[in-house]
Design brief:
Helix content: 25-40%
Strand order of the largest sheet: 3-2-1-4-5-6-10-9
Shape: globular
Strand content: 15-25%
Number of strands: 10
CATH superfamily: NAD(P)-binding Rossmann-like Domain
Radius of gyration: 17 Å
CATH topology: Rossmann fold
CATH architecture: 3-Layer(aba) Sandwich
Length: about 240
């Protein structure tokens, strides 16, 4: 099968790309982005990688070199990086929707499955800007003609980023020390590594392709059907246990 990834140079996307390249079930891996991933020539499966360079506002104009069975979206930014809320929306909402429309255009004969990283407590009615935008993108993706749609909702992400995020860096150090407090009702908020999120995404994708399903779902959309579209939410608590 063939996969497409956007956001492959980010914390989750880098790990996910390595996972997919190394997996023999994938024949071609189309990476879409502004810059090519920095990989060693000896990276397992690197010969399968096809890089398609684009700016995010040009996604709707792209042509892809292969049909797509599974698409992975790991796009995400911050207000600081984006500069303002409008630019944030262009990345975390508009580009995500445009990517979904692109892979639908080049979907395999059996349709395309989309796996998307959003956020814990994503809610289109939230008073918090970040959570509201994440909720809005979940809402709008549900309206597209996809074969299957899975949302991964991590809490605070742990790991080294290419771009420094001061508050997250402080949070990572604190929560690494205080990880023992995330039990009971607080378990859903336990920080998670970008690698573990990526491992979950691949595990779910592989199980879906084998026809066995992910075995886990959560939230109001779990296992639901909308015009033959299966919609699932894999929340932060599930990701801590799904592939462990």
């Amino acid at each position: 099968m063939n996969a497409a990834i956007i956001g492959a140079t980010g914390l989750i996307g880098q790990c996910l790309l390595l996972n997919i390249l190394a997996d023999n079930r994938y024949q071609q891996v189309v990476v879409i982005g502004r810059r090519s991933p920095k990989l060693e020539a000896s990276t397992p499966g690197i010969e399968k990688l096809i890089f398609v360079e684009t700016q995010l506002n040009q996604l709707t104009e792209l042509s892809l070199p292969a049909s797509i069975d599974q698409a992975f979206c790991c796009l995400g930014t911050t207000i600081k990086q984006a500069g303002n809320q409008e630019n944030f929306i262009k990345v975390d909402h508009t580009a995500v929707i445009d990517f979904a429309k692109l892979v639908i255009k080049y979907q395999a004969q059996t349709g395309v499955e989309l796996l998307v990283v959003t956020a814990l407590d994503a809610n289109e009615k939230s008073t918090m800007f970040y959570n509201r935008v994440k909720g809005e993108v979940q809402r709008d993706l549900r309206l597209l003609p996809l074969k299957q749609l899975t949302f991964f909702q991590p809490s605070l992400l742990l790991g080294e980023r290419a771009h420094q995020r001061t508050l997250e860096d402080i949070g990572q150090k604190f929560f690494a020390i205080a990880s023992g407090i995330f039990i009971g009702p607080l378990a859903k908020y336990k920080p998670i590594t970008g690698k573990l999120v990526a491992d979950n995404m691949l595990a779910v994708a592989v199980k879906d392709q084998s026809g066995s399903g992910s075995g886990s779902s959560s939230g109001t959309d779990s296992g639901s059907q909308l015009d033959n579209l299966t919609i699932r939410i894999i929340d932060n608590k599930q990701m801590h246990r799904l592939v462990n």
